[in-house]
Amino acid sequence: MISKKIVLYKSLLLILLPSLVFAQSETYDLVTFTPPAGWKKESKETIITYSQINQQTGSWCMISVVKSTVSKGTINADFSSEWNELIVKPYQASASPENNEVTEADGWKIKAGGGKFTFNKADAIALLTTFSGYNRCASIISLTNSQEYLQTIQDFLSSVDLKKPTTTSSVEPKEKTKTVADGFAFNITNFDDGWTSTVQTDWVEVIKGNVKVLLHYPKEGTIFPADPEPLTNAAWNILVAPRYSNLKNYKTAYISTYNRPYLGFGNATENASGKDVFIVFFRQGETGWIEFVIPDKSTFIQSFGFDPYNIRWDSNTDLMNALISMSNYNKFAIAASDFTGTWTSDFSGVQQLYSVYTGQYAGMNINQSNETFQFGTGNTYNWKLLAVNGMVGNMKYAEVKSAGKFTVLNNWQISFSKIENKAKKYHAYFKCIKGARLLMLLDADYPGSGIYTAYGKK
Question: Does some domain include residue 170?
Answer without folding.
Answer: no
